[in-house]
């Protein structure tokens, strides 16, 4: 493959990625799910008679919640009584009827606690003839934060910090978070009851689990206080935690505190949880774009997870196997979605997508006809301004000619600076959406 063709393929991969991200932009998702005709509000096939509604409140949290709220205002206008959404710093947009608060993510801060109290206040105020529209997206767990009376904001921050670095899974972390909160784990739905609740949810979780996204504020919680204690013991952090937290969880396990609402609780009879955006929707749009560009396209895997090193081997092996298969149509586009992990050391700058792309670049040396793009749909990979990177058989060789050794950058976890000095960055700017990561593999004949 000549370098001109190679550049074209990198451009094609980026076009496909941008089409995927555009399809899960919050405004597009809301406008395709919500509509008003005469006096009828339709949300994903459910109808609400506006004449029967005394108030419509809009609340929510997550990186995309302000953009979602803006679209709700365009659709419902003056029919909205009021509301409050909480976004990460830098993610606010100007709204007329709904207040936007910016707060700390991934570590909750004072602004988050204050704004969450305002959200709970609206929830408790909503009456039987009201509708509460809840807008949730990734980041909601940190942004929608509170502390039970006996505990402090510092206690909650300490638990969060320890859990996130303990090696616990997101499901395990959330089992603890949900039992130290009056909002998470379905408790927001309890506060809203008896008003009707409809939650529009942008999923950043593999498998789109309602009780895990944003810690499931309007979803039933299958976990218990006893489960939360088990997690703390499993990862050996009981001794390090403030004793007030341990006492609180044991009080709960012994029946001294109200459990989170479970599946089958009548509270959920008046709740509709609707996934409006997900990695699967983005992959489907990527597939359509690739087909439009005359590539034989297949969604291979939408549950990509685990450490980037084995994932890079899996991606390159899959591509090489497809390339060697004489019966497989080429050029082809293989699509993958999910969220990998990377354990960092060293003093470099990067993110899981750039690191994964650089690992792939090393494996693709001298293997012509394969282009791989790895990027985050939120437009920011790690603490950098890049969404990810695109690589092919020439990436490593060209870098070495410039005196850049991929191995050195990999061992220093410095993928951002590798691509900055060589080329290959995908830079979209913050997209204000997030449905995890996408990997696009274009396979030509050798």
Find the CATH superfamily of the largest domain: Glycerate kinase, MOFRL-like N-terminal domain
Regions with little confidence, pLDDT below 50 for 5+ residues? none
CATH architecture of the largest domain: 3-Layer(aba) Sandwich
Number of helices: 16
Topology:
Blueprint: H1 3-23, H2 26-33, E1 34-37, E2 40-43, E3 46-49, E4 56-61, H3 65-76, E5 82-88, E6 98-103, H4 110-125, E7 131-136, H5 140-143, H6 153-164, H7 170-178, H8 187-192, E8 196-202, H9 225-234, H10 243-253, E9 271-277, H11 279-292, E10 296-307, H12 308-324, E11 332-341, H13 352-363, E12 370-376, E13 388-392, H14 395-401, H15 406-411, H16 415-422, E14 425-426, E15 437-443
Parallel strand pairs: 4-5, 4-7, 5-6, 7-8, 8-9, 10-11
Antiparallel strand pairs: 1-2, 2-3, 11-15, 12-13, 12-15, 13-14
Task: Write structural notes for this entry.
By secondary structure, the chain is an alpha/beta fold. The protein folds into 2 domains: 3-20 and 280-443, 3-Layer(aba) Sandwich (glycerate kinase, domain 1); 25-146 and 181-223 and 260-277, 3-Layer(aba) Sandwich (Rossmann fold). Helix content is 39%, strand content 21%. It has 16 helices and 15 strands. The protein has helices at 3-23, 26-33, 65-76, 110-125, 140-143, 153-164, 170-178, 187-192, 225-234, 243-253, 279-292, 308-324, 352-363, 395-401, 406-411, 415-422; strands at 34-37, 40-43, 46-49, 56-61, 82-88, 98-103, 131-136, 196-202, 271-277, 296-307, 332-341, 370-376, 388-392, 425-426, 437-443. The strands form 3 sheets. It has a 6-stranded parallel β-sheet with strand order 6-5-4-7-8-9, sandwiched between helices. A hairpin with a 2-residue loop joins strand 2 and strand 3. Helix 7 (170-178) crosses helix 9, helix 9 (225-234) crosses helix 10 and helix 12 packs across helix 13 (352-363). The longest helix has 21 residues, at 3-23. The termini are close together. The model has no long low-confidence stretch (mean pLDDT 94).
């Amino acid at each position: 493959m000549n370098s001109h063709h190679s550049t074209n393929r990198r451009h094609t991969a980026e076009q496909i990625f941008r089409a995927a991200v555009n399809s899960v932009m919050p405004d597009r998702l809301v406008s395709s799910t919500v509509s008003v005709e005469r006096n009828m509000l339709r949300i994903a096939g459910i109808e609400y008679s506006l004449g029967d509604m005394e108030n419509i409140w809009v609340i929510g949290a997550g990186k995309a919640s302000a953009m979602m709220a803006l679209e709700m205002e365009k659709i419902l206008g003056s029919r909205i009584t009021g509301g409050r959404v909480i976004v990460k710093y830098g993610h606010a947009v100007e709204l007329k009827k709904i207040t936007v608060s910016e707060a700390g993510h991934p570590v909750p801060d004072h602004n988050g606690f204050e704004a969450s109290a305002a959200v709970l206040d609206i929830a408790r105020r909503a009456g039987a003839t009201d509708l509460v529209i809840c807008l949730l997206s990734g980041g909601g767990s940190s942004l929608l934060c509170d502390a039970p009376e006996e505990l402090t904001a510092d206690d909650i921050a300490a638990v969060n910090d320890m859990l996130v670095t303990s090696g616990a899974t997101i499901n395990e972390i959330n089992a603890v978070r949900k039992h130290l909160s009056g909002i998470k784990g379905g408790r927001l739905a309890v506060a809203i009851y008896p008003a009707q609740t409809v939650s529009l949810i942008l999923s950043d979780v593999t498998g789109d689990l309602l009780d895990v996204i944003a810690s499931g504020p309007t979803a039933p919680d299958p976990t218990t206080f006893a489960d939360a204690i088990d997690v703390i013991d499993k990862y050996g952090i009981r001794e390090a935690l403030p004793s007030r937290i341990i006492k609180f969880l044991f009080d709960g396990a012994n029946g001294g505190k109200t459990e989170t609402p479970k599946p089958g609780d009548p509270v959920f009879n008046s709740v509709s949880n609707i996934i409006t955006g997900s990695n699967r929707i983005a992959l489907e749009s990527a597939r359509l774009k690739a087909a439009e560009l005359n590539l034989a396209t297949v969604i291979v895997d939408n549950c990509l997870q685990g450490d980037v090193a084995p994932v890079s081997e899996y991606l390159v092996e899959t591509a090489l196997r497809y390339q060697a298969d004489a019966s497989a149509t080429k050029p082809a586009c293989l699509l993958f979605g999910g969220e990998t992990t990377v354990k960092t050391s060293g003093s470099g700058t990067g993110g899981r997508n750039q690191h994964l792309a650089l690992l792939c670049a090393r494996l693709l040396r001298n293997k012509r006809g394969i282009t791989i793009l790895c990027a985050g749909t939120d437009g920011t990979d790690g603490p950098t301004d890049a969404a990810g990177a695109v690589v092919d058989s020439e990436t490593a060789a060209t870098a070495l000619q410039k005196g850049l050794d991929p191995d050195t950058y990999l061992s220093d976890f410095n993928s951002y600076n590798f691509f900055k000095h060589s080329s290959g960055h995908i830079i979209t700017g913050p997209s204000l959406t997030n449905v995890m990561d996408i990997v696009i593999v274009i396979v030509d004949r050798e």
